[in-house]
Amino acid sequence: MDHTRDPKGSTLDTIRGRLLEKGIDCAPTDLPEVARHLGVLEDMVRELSSDLSGSST
Amino acid sequence: MSQSPIQIARENNWLAREIARPALTSSGPLAGMTFFAKDLFAIAGEVTRAGSACFDEDPPAIEDAVLVRRAREAGATLLGTTNMDALAYGFVTNNPEYGRARHPMDPRRLCGGSSGGSAAVVAAGLADFALGTDTSGSIRVPAAFCGVAGYKPSVGMLENSGIQQLSPTFDRPGVLARDLATLRQVAQAIGHHSLSETDDGLPGNALRGKVGLLGGHFQRGIDPAVEQAVLQFSIQLGARTGVEISGATAARAAAYVLVAYEAFQVHAKRLRESPDAFDAETRHRLFDSALISEEWRANAIAVQTDFSHRFNMLFDEFSFLVSPCVPMLPPLKSELDTARPGQTPLRASLGLYTQPISLVGCPVVSVPLSTKAGWPTAIQLIGPVGSDTRLLEYAESLSS
C-alpha cells in the first residue's frame, strides 16, 4: 500500500489541508510520517468490513 | 552492597520518577506491601506526566488518585511511578524521555506496554504489585511478556478518578501482581466492595466444559511455543477448544479506530496550541486521529454493537472464555518493525488478541504461563461484564 496517500488517494498537501480544517497546523517535516501512520489507520478502517457476516459457533 | 529497588528500576528504564509515599496505616490488608504506580496516576504534590512533556506546565495534583490513596490506606507503601508509552498510546514502553523498558529476563527484548514499567518491576520482584491502565491491552500485553498476573476490570470496579485519560470509553485502571492470589487481594483492598464478597461459583474442576478456548482470529499468527503453552493449559482446565466468533478482526479494527478518535478528542486543545510539546511519534498518530471521519466512527460503533452482542451470547454457554494474550514471545526491539517476507511487522500484532475483548468491555485476568523454553506468556481469562468477583476467585483457584 502507498502510505504517502490518504484513504481518498490524496497527496501530502491534501492531508495538510484536511488537518488545517481541524485547526491543526502540521509542519511539512511531519507530513511523511503522518501519512505513513494514516496508512495504518486506513488499513484498520478497511478491516471494519472484513468479516462481518456469520454468527458465533 | 545490594542495589535498592529504585536503583534497579532506574537502570533498566522501568522507573519514571522516584516519588515515595508512606503507607497510611500499618495494619491494613496490604500492610507491609510495596507498590509502584504507572506515571499517569495522580500523586499529591506532583505533576501527572503520563510519560509526556506535554503536561509539564500543568499544576501539581492536589490529591492522590483514588486507587493510590486506597492502596496507601490499606497499608501499602508507594515507591515511585513507572515508565510507560507516552500518553499510554502504545504497546512497547519505549518512552522518549524515560527510555526503552528492558525485559527482565533479556534486556534486548521488550516488556510490552503501555504499562511496561509496572509489569517489569513486579516481575523483577521490586514490589508486590503495581497499578497500571488497560485501554486496548496495556496491562495484558506487558503482563504476558513479563510473566506477572494482571487484572483489567469491568467499568466501575476500580475507580478511575485521578488518572490521565487516553480514551474515556475504554480506559480501565488495573493491577499487576506477582501472583494470582496477590492480584485478588489487592483488587479487594482497593476496588469495589463487591470484589470482597465470596461468589458461590464453582471453581476448579466443577467448571470443566464451561470454559471455552477461542479460536479463529485468536490463533491468527500465533507463535507455536505460545500456542502449545495455551493449549496445554486449556486442556488442564477442561476447556472446550475451537470456540469461534466471527467478526473479531473487524472488532479489533473498531477498537483501534474508536480509541484513536477519543485520543484526539482528549488531547485536541493541547495539540492545536502546542504540538511540539508532544513527542514526534505520538504527535503524528494524534494528527491522524484528527482525520477520523464521523462515517468511520459510525461504522466502528456498528461493529462494536454487533460484535459485543454476539460475544456476550457465548456466555450463555460458557462461564469463562480464554485466549492467548499475545501471539508472540517477548520480541527483540529489532523485530518490531521488520517484517519477514509475507508477514506483518510484529508491532501491528501486539494488540491482536486483546483489542477485540476491550471493545466488549469484559473483565479479564491475565494468567501467566511459561513456554517449554521458559519464556513467559499468558492467557486472557475473560468473564461477562460484571463478573469480576467470580473471575478473580476462579483465577486464584488456578494457582493451585
Q: What this model shows, in words?
A:
The complex is a heterodimer of chains A (57) and B (400). Chain A is mostly helical and 57 residues long. Chain A has a domain at 12-44. Helix content of chain A is 47%, strand content 0%. Chain A contains two helices and no strands. Chain A has helices at residues 12-21, 31-47. The radius of gyration of chain A is 15 Å and the shape is elongated. Chain B has helices at residues 5-11, 66-73, 116-123, 140-146, 180-190, 224-237, 248-273, 280-289, 294-313, 355-360, 388-398; strands at 15-17, 34-38, 77-82, 94-95, 99-100, 129-134, 149-152, 172-177, 211-214, 240-243, 320-324, 364-370, 376-382. In chain B, the strands form two sheets. Chain B has an eleven-stranded mixed β-sheet, sandwiched between helices. Chain B is globular and about 50 Å long. The interface between A and B is large, with 32 and 39 residues.
Shape of chain B: globular
The poorly predicted ranges of chain A are: 1-9, 53-57
Full CATH superfamily name of the largest domain in chain B: Amidase signature (AS) domain
Instruction: Report the count of strand segments of chain B.
Output: 13
Q: How is the main sheet of chain B built?
A: 11 strands, mixed
* SSE sequence of chain B, one letter per element: HEEHEEEHEHEEHEHEHHHEHEEH
Total beta strands of chain A:
0
Query: At CATH's second level, what is the architecture of the largest domain in chain B?
Result: Alpha-Beta Complex
SSE topology string of chain A = HH
Q: Which stretches of chain B are low in confidence, meaning pLDDT under 50 for 5 or more residues running?
A: none
Structural class of the secondary elements of chain B? alpha/beta
According to CATH, what is the class of the largest domain in chain B?
Alpha Beta
Could you tell me how far the N terminus lies from the C terminus of chain B, measured between alpha carbons in angstroms? 36 Å
Category from helices, strands and their pairing of chain A: mainly alpha
Strand order of the largest sheet of chain B: 1-3-2-6-8-7-12-13-11-9-10
Which range does the strand content of chain A fall in? under 5%
* Mean pLDDT, all residues of chain B: 94
